[in-house]
Amino acid sequence: MSNSNDSSTILVAGATGFLGREICRQLTAENMRVKGFVRATSDANKVAHLKELGVETIEGDLKNKQSLVNALKGVSAIISTVSSTLSRQEGDSIQTVDDEGQTNLIDAAIHAGINQFIFISFCAMAGEWPLQTAKRKVERHLAKSGLNYTIFQPTCFMEVWLGPALGFDYPNAKATIYGEGNNKVSWIAIKDVAAFAVNSLHNPLANNKIIELGGPQALSPLEAVHIFEASIGKKFELQFVPEEAIKVQKAAAQDPLSESFAGLMLGVANGSEIDMTEALKISPIKLTSVSDYVKS
């Protein structure tokens, strides 16, 4: 773990995203020097928030190789959280961002002599679909790059999958359940993923490792619903999306992103349990439970 006497600069790629912002917050709280890699089209309020944290923002795009050369000047380590899934601009796609863009960043890091590259991917899920294919390809490229790397593979973020954006509308006591809702998932909090990334900086135990990440307890979606119901004192109205219907949706998808979302839904339906024993030996972080999340 780095300390306030370390003058090295960390570049956070994807700095305006949910995870990127939290990583920047934790880094600046540790008095570390942070560059936030943002785009000219990034949300002005989010960029302003980064600057308030003390982050130096630098504009560029993973699709623009020259902008990467400029961004990496004076940088010793990179944490990349970039993905085209939630924030897209003209020309963005899984191929141009999650595949080629991340590869461009790794290649630029090699050329710039960067000490450490931390890549936030996601855990293995069943089936073949474009986003998973891109992430695994980038992981292989990074592992062969010669860079000192750490690849994190978190399972489902509780703020995303147990939140209104994906149909878990807890303020209105309604939830969309993918599949039968009985398979367990090790839901993880965004702030915990950020803490693992920050803790892996200059941590020899994290060097050249692929580390799966999950929360403290594997719970089925229906068990998660029960925790929310007990907390708000109200019964949820549930809508089930059968696994077969998701498979049909995936097969009929007209574009790589739609196919990938269906792949992720199938992943949740099938369950995703993560054993955290090894990860916690590397970084002993206090993990956030679904019950903690409900109370927050």
TrEMBL record:
CDD domains linked to this entry: SDR_a5 (cd05243)
Superkingdom of the organism of origin: Bacteria
InterPro entries: HCF244-like, NAD(P)-bd_dom_sf, NmrA-like
Example of a GO biological process term: photosynthesis
Statement: the UniProt record of this protein carries the keyword Transport: no
Origin species: Limnovirga soli
Domain called NmrA-like: residue spans: 7-293
Annotated GO CC locations: photosystem II
Keywords, in A-Z order: Photosynthesis, Photosystem II
Protein name: NAD(P)H-binding protein
Transcription recorded as keyword: no
Gene3D superfamilies per UniProt: NAD(P)-binding Rossmann-like Domain (3.40.50.720)
